[in-house]
Amino acid sequence: DAKTTQPNSMESNEEEPVHLPCNHSTISGTDYIHWYRQLPSQGPEYVIHGLTSNVNNRMASLAIAEDRKSSTLILHRATLRDAAVYYCILRDGGGKLIFGQGTTLQVKP
Amino acid sequence: ETGVTQTPRHLVMGMTNKKSLKCEQHLGHNAMYWYKQSAKKPLELMFVYSLEERVENNSVPSRFSPECPNSSHLFLHLHTLQPEDSALYLCASSQDWDRVRKLFFGSGTQLSVL
């Protein structure tokens, strides 16, 4: 399974943008990049996914490097409710989602 | 509300007990999953069912026994567990197994084995 590398933790101030990085240097051409987040005492929830082009939805934006070896999840205005563990995951053509350690995001008021 | 409901939310059991975890999804999905989340460890995929057939079994000990009677329900039967099996057990579903676009998770069952 292709691996991802994320910082263990990051801090942000409320109402400021947050850029969460992910390295995936062994990504293959058919791997999709998925992001999930897990709020305290809850199961993970889907945030966004993409293959090659940048993607936007109501929760976040996903910026994918041209060589696809890295990506960045962008929260445009962090709120206290965005404090969570964020997981960057590669999904191969077979469909399995293998979670790593993720990045714990703290949001300060 | 994600459409995936797990019961119970909390469970305490002794090593000789037999208990079952239940998961129900109201999303019309064809695939269901069990994940285990131990403290300070990544989520581990345990089992995958697609259209009620098991398609993935990741070397899980036989003291964990899954059952999928229909595409909306998934059970995890537990017997003679060990204290190290204490963890958060998460159920998830997706439209299909072979082209997973989104996983929808329940809130999990926090299991403590004494």
Characterise this structure.
The complex is a heterodimer of chains A (109) and B (114). Chain A has 109 residues and is mainly β. Chain A has no helices and 9 strands. A 5-stranded mixed sheet of chain A has the order 1-9-8-3-4, with no helix packed on it. In chain A, strands 2-7-6-5 form a 4-stranded antiparallel sheet, with no helix packed on it. In chain A, a hairpin with a 6-residue loop joins β3 (32-38) and β4 (45-50). Chain B is built from no helices and 11 strands. Chain B is globular, with a radius of gyration of 13 Å. Chain B starts with a strand and ends with a strand. The A-B interface holds A 36, 41-46, 49, 91, 94-102 and B 2, 4, 35, 42-43, 45, 48, 56, 90-92, 96-108.
Task: Please write out the topology.
The complex is a heterodimer of chains A (109) and B (114).
Chain A: E1 9-13, E2 18-23, E3 32-38, E4 45-50, E5 55-56, E6 61-64, E7 70-75, E8 84-91, E9 103-108
Parallel strand pairs in A: 1-9
Antiparallel strand pairs in A: 2-7, 3-4, 3-8, 5-6, 6-7, 8-9
Chain B: E1 4-7, E2 10-13, E3 18-25, E4 31-37, E5 44-50, E6 53-57, E7 64-70, E8 73-79, E9 87-94, E10 104-105, E11 109-113
Parallel strand pairs in B: 2-11
Antiparallel strand pairs in B: 1-3, 3-8, 4-5, 4-9, 5-6, 7-8, 9-10, 9-11
